[in-house]
Specification:
By secondary structure, the chain is mainly alpha-helical. It has three domains: 38-108, no CATH class; 109-181, no CATH class; 191-254, no CATH class. Helix content is 39%, strand content 0%. The protein contains 14 helices and no strands. The protein has helices at residues 2-25, 33-39, 41-50, 53-56, 60-63, 116-122, 124-132, 168-171, 191-195, 199-207, 217-220, 232-235, 241-246, 251-254. Mean pLDDT is 86; it is low at 1-24.
Amino acid sequence: MKWNNCLVVGAILMFLSAGIAVAAEEGEVLLTLPDCNKCHSAIVTDVTLNGGLHSSAVTCLECHPEHPPAGTEVIPACSMCHAEAEKEHYRVGNCLGCHNPHHPRAIDFTAVEQVNPVCVSCHGNEGEQLREYPSKHSELSCTACHLVHGEFLSCLECHGPHVEGQTYQDCFTCHKPHKPTLVRYPETAPVSYCSGCHPKATQDLAQNRTRHHDLLCAYCHKTQHKAIPACETCHGKPHEKSMHQAFPDCLQCHIDPHALAK
């Protein structure tokens, strides 16, 4: 009796296997989405919670059209959906070095030897800034500042503040991380921000009792760091013509804009 039961079970299994094989040849799909959860519940949960478009735009069976033993096309190429012609990033290769298909936005760089070309393929504007305005930042790996994708270190992790009390947000008043040597600021930038690098000029201006004393640095050095305006920009030619002809350089008499000689 037991032997007969085994024969029956064996016959059923052979029949099902044959059915799967025929179905695969005819292009039919025997599996349904609930079937995936029976064996791959952890993966189904992962992709449901963290899959992004891999959860909402496609289903398991669209990425995994076959299942052993009937089919061997189990793991699809990323290019099946992410065509290389569409974006530079899709041409980088080694997709699994950064992405797990079941949680693709949780990017992990640890398996990538040269991460900068990968980052620049998506963040081209930042890459261009690093090339156009070379600095020590240009020589770093992106992961030196971005330990985790989408996050970044505070400037104060590597750089001391110009003056005591400056915060990370204060840094952005004058500097952009991918072009830090291009110093630009609003006309409202406090004098204290300049004093850290220009202590003498700041001290002279503080002791000056002319109207220059009441001005912010950015009032004269507008927008662009190291921009030096001509005195005529504000003062025109206040003396007689003969005086300006004899002394064409205002500083021959007035010595220093930060410590004016009256």
